[in-house]
Design a protein that fits this description.
Layout lengths: L2 H37 L5 E3 L2 E3 L2 H23 L8
Antiparallel strand pairs: 1-2
Helix pairs in contact: 1-2
Length: 85
Amino acid sequence: MSQLRKIHAAVLNILARIFGVLSIIVGVIFTIWGLALVLNKNSTIGVNGVPSSDPWEKAMVLVVGVVSVVLGVLVLMARPYRPDE
């Protein structure tokens, strides 16, 4: 196996791990923000520049956060890419 393929695999694995960690960080932030929106009846979120207190709109922030955390965990759990030797 060439040295270039080894470097390519290493870079790909490092970028995948960075993506997984950052996805979890952003997902946790969105989840906390979504919980704060959903639990406070008086909170509003901007929808097309107009404040809205619709619970479904606020819950979408929570859903996006949870999906991002799950995606990050799945990426980190994936086995590293190793080209055929």
